[in-house]
Amino acid sequence: MARSFRLLVLVSLLLFSLPLAATPYGETAMLVLEADVAKLDAALIGAIDSPSADVRVAAARVAAVRDRKVLLEKIEPQLATESDINVARELVRAAILLGGRDLVTPALAASARFDHRLDGPIAVAVARLGAGEAIPLYFSTLKNLESTPRTNFFRVALWGTPVLVTSTAARILGTGDPAAWKALIGALDESSMHLEAGVLRVALGHPDEEIRESTINLSVTSLTDPQQRVDAKAKEVLAERFEIEATEPARISFRRELARRLAGGKASTRADWLEWIATAEGTDFLRRSEALLQVLSSEEVSSMLPDEKKSGRRGQRRSSVPINPVIAAPFFAPSVLPSGMAAAVLAETGCRQQWVGLGEVSVDRQGRVQTLAIGEVETDSRCRRALEAVTRLSLTYNRSITSPMATDNAVFIKPRGGDLCLDEGPVPTSQESDFEACIPYRFSDDTMACKPPVVRKRVEPQFPLSARRAMTGGRSSTIIIEALINETGCVREAHLVGQSPYGELNREALLALLQWRFDPGETNGVAIPVVFKLSVSFMTR
Question: pTM of the entire structure?
Fold first, then answer.
């Protein structure tokens, strides 16, 4: 019996150590690391004509991220005849990134064959061309496309060129396009930017209510930000009174009043404001920021609903370890990949181990990885190769308009044996838009109601002995993490917002969170990606 048990254990260990099954999809994706350009081009030319849809997807992605313009002579005719929508999605990206504005019309023609379901990916690909080409193309071609993911569009298009924000804003106001304006406001909010005083005055007095409301929301957000992103001239505008505010509903006019007070203007009061404050919407809005509560009158404070979260019952007081703020990496790397590609790379390389550590990454204007240093990441050789491949296969997304294009603070983390939550969602139906991530705790997202994700599977973090010993005496240490939960309920991105001085706790918190699973967030019954913050606490007795 003992011999049989030892044999079973040995066989299990051998099976666990064997590489996962390689596939043509994985083999083609791994061409991203091919150093011989002649071999690379020959392999991709053959793969573009493959009967396998997955292979065609991988070939198009590798051609795009390796900037192989020689493949255009194969990609353009393939785009005109491709019958698989997932392949076509990757082909339109590659065509625009490699061929520029000249390939936008053929890409839109391909999208039309699929009931315009590829318009969203086309818009983001155009944005990657940079503001000089993308902004004119938006107004001439893209603005009427229903599924254009506009916040992504303006954030990506204006990446590295914040000087063009004012001219872009003025052009949008001139067209009176509320969808484009709200998208630009969202991109400015993500970028900790505000509006130039002249543009701000026009927006605050604009006849379109949606434009005024999103402008006021951005102003309130900016004025309550510790970084104080609003300059003196813009504050003077915010302190003014506009004739149009007399006709605005209370939810808008009172927020305008809050911005006025925060900017140093004279306070006033209205009965309908007190009524709005007494609603759940009004009270919840005011409780988002301590700075808002500080500019309320005593009568306004009294009008707020009771705070049900407060409880007279208090637990044992603990000594808390300070939370240190973290500057997030300027872009997401690795980023979302065609469905199944990350798993195919892990199988091709035989990667089963975890990876944890910081690296250096630089990207070009289109989001393609140019340099990558991951020598300090803790993992084995197979997983290091997998990490390099999925990172170089990525078309990275910038966090903000002002994000630098290089960082030495990229966090690479994957649990042992775990999958990478990098799969792109399915192409939306013709009746749906390409939903962007909902960020419910931002003021500028008030107009987008989203149901938050619900935890379905929770993995508790390990509490390393070294940290436990250092935190004796009833101390606690809290880590604050911002995470993006994708449409399937897995954690696509997670980064530290507030970290513990005990580095091993930060590591364990992230490793655990990446293994959580959720019922995804929703809007109008459709699953969408949702960004939210959560806290992970470690406590000793």
Answer: 0.88
